[in-house]
Specification:
238 residues, alpha/beta, Rossmann fold, nine-stranded mixed β-sheet, two-stranded antiparallel sheet, 8 helices, 11 strands
């Protein structure tokens, strides 16, 4: 069932389909992580219904976004969300396999790439490749190595890749970054509460960057009462 939600910024709204994969806090945090990096052309891989590009369009002056999404239903929502918010001139939505993107998009043409990828490794259990929720969570149509390889081809030299992922995959991510000449530059660990270990992390990498990593203070998602922490509330508002 479809619904329209208010993003509570710049009057933007988003159409979501509850039968597909609705956006969560991780998408909001990734958009906030990337927002301070200036960009003329931003690429959103695994774009879903377009939430990250919508938030960046509302919070930055980036003139052009390209969204790549393999699920036809999600890509259609992304196009409709662009139209709903008057962003047709700033958004191009491509319903395609991201692995094919380097043959369609100009190599080295993006200042920023953002990606909220499937977290779970493929090949574990039987999954329906046509199930939108399964595809959003599991590496069915793409995997980590393929995503980073594509980013290495499409980023301009000195361009920035912003990713959110499970801490359990950190070693894999760092290896893939280095193998594709994307140098890890900034890390931030996300903790559900102050008492829990980090489950997710944000990472920024720069194509051709120097070998220096900055670790930001941890981001606590929920306070002792189980409500969003003051910092996360501020991220939603700003």
């Amino acid at each position: 069932m479809e619904r329209i939600d208010d993003l509570q910024i710049s009057g933007y709204r988003i159409i979501q389909d509850t039968d597909q994969f609705c956006f969560g806090t991780d998408a909001v945090l990734l958009a906030d992580f990337a927002r301070k990096t200036r960009s003329k052309r931003t690429l959103d891989l695994c774009a879903g219904n377009g939430i990250i590009a919508l938030l960046l369009a509302a919070k930055t002056d980036t003139p052009h976004f390209t969204l790549v999404e393999i699920q036809p239903g999600a890509a259609d929502l992304a196009r409709r969300n662009a139209a709903l918010n008057g962003l047709e001139e700033r958004f191009d939505v491509l319903n395609m396999d991201l692995n094919d993107a380097p043959s369609v998009l100009e190599p080295g043409s993006f200042d920023v790439i953002v990606c909220n990828p499937p977290y779970m490794e493929g090949g574990r259990g039987l999954l329906n490749p046509l199930d939108a929720k399964a595809a959003a969570r599991h590496e069915i149509s793409c995997n980590l190595a393929g995503i980073v390889s594509v980013c290495g081809k499409l980023l301009r030299y000195g361009g920035h890749l912003f990713l959110i992922h499970k801490t359990s995959r950190m070693a894999d991510i760092l290896i893939e970054f280095r193998q594709n000449k994307i140098e890890p530059k900034t890390l931030r660990f996300l903790h559900r509460t102050r008492q829990t270990a980090a489950d997710l992390f944000l990472i920024e990498g720069t194509l051709g960057g120097g070998k220096e990593v900055r670790v930001l203070p941890p981001l606590i998602l929920y306070d002792e009462n189980g409500t969003l922490s003051p910092e996360v509330k501020q991220i939603y508002r700003s």
